[in-house]
Amino acid sequence: MARRSSPEVNAGSMADIAFLLLIFFLVTTTIETDSGISRKLPPMQEDEVEPPIIKQKNIFSVIVNRNNELLVEDEPMEIGALREAAIEFLDNGGGTGPEACDYCQGPRSPNSSDNPNKAVIMLVNDRATEYGTYITVQNELVAAYNHLRDRSARRLYNKSFVQMEEDYDNVNYSGNKETLKEQIEEIRNMWPQKLSEAEPKS
Amino acid sequence: MSKFKKKKSGELPAVNTASLPDIVFMLLFFFMVATVMRQNTLKIQNVLPYADQVEKLDKKDLVMYIYAGKPSSRYQANAGTEARIQLNDNFASVNDVQQFIFSEREAKREELVPFLTTALKVDEETNMGLVSDIKQELRKAEALKINYTTKTGDAKQNMQ
């Protein structure tokens, strides 16, 4: 019997099929944005607990009103100036004796914060404040902390803080992870994120 | 001599499309790999604000999503125009948040529960009142790790 050569499959419609699938995936694709500002909420407290007494000069108050305007330390402020103001407050290091801060580079004014460990940023919102504004303010305040942490990280370990955290998460990191973790913790303790949010006013 | 003379025809030769399927397949594979199927159908407007101090949320299975915003136009007849919370596929009230957190925890393996993060996907025009109500409920449910999901970009765009 003569060997019949098998007929070639017609691949002409392959492109059409592929196009159809392509268009389906094009339409259904949503490039998800799963990044954001991570925060930790304070745990619920019993009512009897006395709030700790904090000196007025160690509080940096940021109030956002219902028209999305900022009041920082009782002065109206544009959002663009908030980051600088927060950095100046945190970096002031006006304390003396046991409260002195040897890594602060601020003006050491006696009217501003003693020490980054004491400095608290207090954020008060109105219930009618827009969420977008709130995120902007949060972003600027977190940026202030990140800037200062970065500065210390560069000075002490010649690496940016972001890089250190990335290295820590990196599985292929060649250096010693234990020391890296200690270094990250040290810098976090130098600039603890003390960001207190009051219940919004109605 | 005339043997080597090419036949001259006035028509242009057809473009060779043999590699077209390959190109299309390449694109197809890219989109197949890049696609994340939406878990929930959104019933609300959800324009996220911008921020640039962001951290990435990896481990998608350890994230609980809470959406909030104004109902989309097709649901406004039933749900009104005030900002609402959406849990899974339905509108919900503030009181349902705790229950939602508990049922999400139930579905996860016990050792993973401490690592659960709540991602708040809130429309930028929502009032803070609703967001703080949600946060208060999360505190009651002891789901303290939260993440305000944002788009990456200059945060000052939110104020315009």
UniProtKB/TrEMBL annotation, chain A:
GO terms for cellular component: plasma membrane. InterPro entries: ExbD. One of its GO terms (molecular function) is transmembrane transporter activity. Pfam families: ExbD. It is a single-pass membrane protein; Single-pass type II membrane protein. It is found in: Cell membrane. Keywords: Cell membrane, Membrane, Protein transport, Transmembrane, Transmembrane helix, Transport. This is Biopolymer transporter ExbD.
From TrEMBL, chain B:
It is a single-pass membrane protein; Single-pass type II membrane protein. One of its GO terms (cellular component) is plasma membrane. One of its GO terms (biological process) is protein transport. It is found in: Cell membrane. Keywords: Cell membrane, Membrane, Protein transport, Transmembrane, Transmembrane helix, Transport. It comes from the Bacteria. The keyword Transmembrane applies. The chain crosses the membrane at residues 12-37. One of its GO terms (molecular function) is transmembrane transporter activity. It holds the Pfam family ExbD. Belongs to the ExbD/TolR family. This is Biopolymer transporter ExbD. It comes from Salinimicrobium marinum. The lineage of its organism: Bacteria, Pseudomonadati, Bacteroidota, Flavobacteriia, Flavobacteriales.
